[in-house]
Amino acid sequence: MELPDRIVRIVYVDGTGLLASDIHGRVHLLDAQLRVVRSSSFVQQGRPLYGLAAAEGWIIGKDRMGAIFRWSLDTLELVDRLDPATVCDPSTLIPREHPSPVSSRGIGIWDGRVFVSSGYHRQMLVLDLHTFEVLEVRPNICGESPMEWACTDHPTRHAVSDKKGNLRFGSFTDAEFPDLVKLDDGNIHRVRYDARHDRFWATQDFGAGENADIANGVVIVSASGEKEDECLFARDDVEFVTFSPDHLRAYAGGFDGELHIFDNTTRELRIARTVTGFPHQLSDLTVGAGTGTDVGTGADVYVLCQDGEIIQLDAEGEFVRAAGFRRQAVWDIQPSAEDPRTLYCATDTGVAVVHVRDSAAGPMLRVEAEHTTGFGFTRRVAPVRSGWLGITRDHRAFRADHDGTLRWSDELPALPHTVAVSPDGARALVATNAGAVELDIADGRRLDLFDVDGLPVWAATYLPDGDRLLITRNGVIVVLDRADATVRWRLDQGEYPKRLWVQNGRAYITGDGGVKELAVGGGVVARWSKLLSNTIENAVVSDGLVCASSYGMQLAGYDYTTGAFLGLVEDLPDYPKALSMIHDAAGVPHLLVGCRTGILSLFQLERRPKKLRFRKLRDHWLSRHPAAYTLKHHDHDHNHTDDHTDDQAVAVTVTTTARREAPCAR
Q1: What is the CA radius of gyration of the chain?
Q2: Which of 4, 6, 3 is nearest to 574 (CA)?
Q3: Per mean pLDDT, which range of 193-197, 338-342, 360-364 is the poorest?
């Protein structure tokens, strides 16, 4: 049996095997071949289970709205559920407060008790593990920020982290954590105790201080709570760090899509090997005792990718097998240059061409073709005459005709983020971690590479006069002259971007801090973000509205002129990524939303005084396919700051098919 839905968290339990939680609130047990042995039952209004822990015969889970679950570890039968809306201390809530969505992972289990923050982030529940009695509702250890991780590896010195970069030390015995150290400007997703060297390792999302939104990695903190060292290897969120059973190795990685294997035989922070080529960003990792390893000895390393694929490696990072999860996502939607009702959708497998037509019930979608590129997943797409440009996760840019015929493809110097076409249709601008790359659209030749303070450029586009607008990861905005690339304007606004486009003479930026309207040469003149949690991924500005999507699996609508909040949709089936506005025959606006599970959802927008109603019209699912990818490993010398100095590079090509072990060719 194969996994039916995208997995969001994994944990290995000695004596049981690999547990995996999915976006619909179910828990699955996998065997040594990564096949499903059994699954828990469906839960009404099932939501993604981001918190997952196991202890003393029980599995404890927390969903994105703060519901707490308990399953039997032996049978995966659901035994208890605590509702996030009612299990609380009402005396400390603010008026009309409701549970808020959050992808918090923190579950502390100690001495037969469970410590977990609820749907009300300022509160924490203390539960009896074996009866699930609510023993106490107390103030959250981490204040207003949900507990992100709880480390009880040390027998007496425990650590908890939050989503604001704070690491606290104390003990769950008395639930007091008086010692605090600030390590990051964002999430600390994982904290683990290093028993070999009596210290703690913690991950970073953004970095801190002068490295904030520039470089991040893992930070070492002494048992007394003092920062000792750091290794900054990432340009994006680091999602995990964990150890082999003997603590001779540490494994860390995240959204850069690279797994770093540390040699922990000495106290020196040293990356011994980096494994690359995964089909997606890395979201979780767990280590078993080595009982199912086919290659090498010492440990089974299970890597979870954001697309739901689970890849098993041996202790040294050599490929063993993959689950072959069939996945799909819609990352971007752009109308063709010739017909606004023909849409190009960037997907996990390539580009889907979708046509909008009218029916008796309103607009509907007809998928004309799904073109497979053979590259990594297509992050963004931009229309050009008779086709499109695309950028892919495996560092490529390509051009294709409307029928999918590939004209050219070229390798980019680093991970790309956005792509835009010049007003004259002759050039393309690609934002990458190595700067902004300008390409000739006719043949893909690299024309130039634009650097901004040596920083990753996370968004780039052209202004109507051909000048180039760039935004770095740490929020530096620059305008480069179209002729000689001199800096014409600069603004350090300090918030990272996700998307960028120019419309009616203004630039629009999504990302940290909401949706922003930028008067180029002036500054930010408007902002929309109310009631949206986490990063704002995408937005559309049309029909007097601003509609935005967030990492909180939400959609929100605002009045463009006044900025007033008009409406909200929560509990979407998965992360919304792509947005586009279309209209029916009567001119009524409809919002098309592309999600991570390959869903194209169409909402009719019903405008009322001071209110906007999102009326779901229909859903369409694109076909799902297993990923094809090539894993490579790079062995490093003793200098851990050398970014990819290869002593050797070995490639392993993996082509997965459903319900069958992935073959491995060298």
Answers
A1: 24
A2: 6
A3: 360-364
